[in-house]
Write a structure and sequence with these properties.
It contains six helices and seven strands. The chain has helices at about 20-30, 75-95, 100-115, 125-155, 160-165, 170-175; strands at about 1-5, 15-20, 35, 45, 50-55, 60-65, 70-75. β1 and β2 (about 15-20) form a beta hairpin.
Length: about 180
């Protein structure tokens, strides 16, 4: 028979065992532990001597409230998840506009141009410099938008505010 062993104080399951009979079930329990017949499943608990199972986690930012036996929003997890998504999108937009290889080439070219006196630049070099500055300005603008949205997420008091802060982020850059 399958049994779930649980802590008598918290009523949370802690392990399971397959035993041949009731006598062996009692032997499996330590102090402050009891058992109930049933299959172990992550998230089971005991309520009024009945084995119950937690429902599947509604979203990745929910956590199980052991005391009330219900799922609740973990605002800190929701913020981390939203900020991670914002940062990932900012990186995607930047690398879509300027792939890593192009960023490296522009950086190298900017160093070359800076090593030469600006009044000795050719017209082509001056044009290159303007292009480099425009590309870098684009990167800084996307980063600034990411920072702005992350700050709104940090100050959010609930999931609706997190969603509201995230909606519309980067619209000006996605269209380009």
């Amino acid at each position: 028979m399958n049994i779930v062993i649980y802590n008598n104080i918290t009523k949370n399951s802690i392990r399971w065992a397959n035993v041949p009979d009731i006598a062996h079930a009692d032997i499996q329990c330590g102090q402050q532990e009891s058992w109930i017949e049933g299959l172990y499943k992550y998230g089971c608990y005991i309520e009024n001597d009945v084995l119950k199972y937690r429902l599947e986690q509604p979203t990745e930012y929910h956590k199980f409230d052991e005391e009330n036996k219900t799922w609740v929003v973990d605002i800190d997890s929701a913020k981390l998840i939203a900020k991670s998504a914002i940062n990932k999108e900012a990186g995607r937009i930047i690398t879509e506009h300027l792939p890593q290889w192009k960023q490296a080439n522009l950086t190298a070219r900017a160093v070359e141009l800076q090593s030469k006196a600006q009044d000795l630049w050719t017209d082509l070099e001056s044009t290159e410099w303007v292009k480099i500055q425009n590309d870098w300005g684009y990167v800084k603008a996307v980063r600034a938008e990411s920072n702005r949205v992350n700050a709104l997420i940090d100050s959010a008091q609930n999931v609706d505010e997190i969603i509201s802060a995230s909606l519309g982020a980067f619209q000006a850059y996605v269209a380009q």
